[in-house]
Design goal:
By secondary structure, this protein is an alpha+beta fold. Helix content is 28%, strand content 23%. It is globular and about 45 Å long. The N and C termini lie far apart (32 Å). This enzyme scavenges exogenous and endogenous cytidine and 2'-deoxycytidine for UMP synthesis. Its cofactor is Zn(2+).
Length: 132
């Protein structure tokens, strides 16, 4: 799947975001190494700490379906491209330290691609645990 199609899927997922408190809708499209696509949107909660980001929704959907190897993720939000939060970076790193991350604006008009390692330098993963 090319970057444009992945961004388009993230933009579509963004339209389903539930963001009544922040007004900041985010969509994500996660591509497995096998070519399967998983989308997610942010889901806010009146108890703010229970809010879940779009990237983790997509990741958890994939993992819950038995997929654990990923090639790329596109994230669409706002007037300009934005980056996944630290928690999402760490969650993605757990499964795909070499993931391509595509940062897009909310309409998918502008985007840039970069490696997850540039967003989470010296990341911590399963290999760093004793016996990992």
């Amino acid at each position: 799947m090319d970057e444009a199609r992945l961004v388009a899927a993230a933009v579509e997922a963004r339209r389903r975001a539930y963001a009544p408190y922040s007004g900041f809708a985010v969509g994500a499209a996660l591509l497995s190494t096998g070519g399967k696509l998983f989308t997610g949107c942010n889901v806010e909660n009146a108890s703010y700490g229970l809010t879940v980001c779009a990237e983790r929704v997509a990741l958890f959907k994939a993992v819950s379906e038995g997929v654990r190897e990923f090639a790329a993720i596109a994230v669409a939000c706002g007037d300009s491209p934005c980056s996944p939060c630290g928690a999402c970076r760490q969650a993605l790193y757990e499964f795909a330290p070499n993931l391509k991350v595509i940062l897009a604006d909310g309409e998918g008009r502008r985007w840039e691609a970069l490696p997850l390692s540039s967003l989470l330098p010296k990341g911590f993963g399963p290999a760093d645990l004793a016996g990992g």
